[in-house]
Amino acid sequence: MSAAEHQLDASTTDDEEESFFQDIDILQNHGINSSDIKKLKTSGICTIKGLQMTVKRKLVQIKGLSEAKIDKIREMANKLSSESLFMTANQVSVKRRHVFKLQTGSNEFDKLLGGGIESMAITEAFGEFRTGKTQISHTLCITCQIPSNGYSGGKAMFIDTEHTFRPDRLKQIASRFGLDEESALDNVLYVRANTSEHQYEILDAVAAKFHEDCGQFKLLVVDSVMALFRVDYSGRGELSERQQKLAQMLSKLQKISEEYNIAVFITNQMTADPGAAMSFQADPKKPIGGHILAHASTVRLYLRKGRSECRIAKIYDSPDLAENEATFAITEGGIADSKE
């Protein structure tokens, strides 16, 4: 059995994930109509926690659900919720034992991240072109399949907005890690987003897929998060609407990461800051997306070019990681340690 097949054959995975979240189907045992539950699932709401994380205004917009029905459903969901409103720090610590970290392919990069890309969080990597954003995305799609240190391995979901996804690249990386190439590709689900609206709508189907294949998916990649928003919204006149839509999409990404214990990795572009010269900033470039994206990302990584194939990753923002740098290389087998 290949490593890629072995990791998805772990018998304990489904049990662990089922205990991690409560299926919305349990509402049927408490007086909620099955047809109403189906309507919720069609909208990407498949768990009790997912229902609690959706505002009433959004629920009322679901066709066929009246305000009275929504109130009844929410009341029952709150009663059935396994999580109490208040938790001690110890209880939060126990819950965070579910968190896993995905290796990047580079030991130095992993050390910088405290072990790798964290689940139940959004990790954003931004930088200029050719700084390794897409290469990291492809490498993670393979490394997430490899079991290690109590981590069972799993599948990846890749949302492509820039037409940068390359299956042949995955084969090269899979070969480096000794995985069967065809099996490795079967474990990566690909979605092409065509507009910013489509990108947002896809997330409902993604949530439903994560629920359907309980516990099998460990990684969600969006490469890149802002490309389509830059195309669909232009000028200051549309900036407010763009940021509102962006905030809604990022909120949904965060909910998915927490609801299904998924590592979310998003890439972002950079732009020149015209006011940098006036403020004497050393680097006149900044990531796009403004404060909305800055606050939504749990960990922000600033990537820049080094010598030859070497790249430098810097912790730009994190709730628990020190501001530091690491050097890694882009090789034929994906992200690896730099030889320099």
UniProtKB/TrEMBL annotation:
SUPFAM superfamilies to which the protein is assigned, alphabetical: P-loop containing nucleoside triphosphate hydrolases, Rad51 N-terminal domain-like
InterPro entries linked: AAA+_ATPase (IPR003593), Dmc1 (IPR011940), DNA_recomb/repair_RecA-like (IPR016467), DNA_repair_Rad51/TF_NusA_a-hlx (IPR010995), P-loop_NTPase (IPR027417), Rad51_C (IPR013632), RecA_ATP-bd (IPR020588), RecA_monomer-monomer_interface (IPR020587)
CC terms in the record's Gene Ontology section: condensed nuclear chromosome
Domain of life where this protein originates: Eukaryota
Example of a GO biological process term: chromosome organization involved in meiotic cell cycle
Protein known as: Meiotic recombination protein DMC1/LIM15 homolog
Keyword Cell cycle: yes
Statement: the UniProt record of this protein carries the keyword Magnesium: no
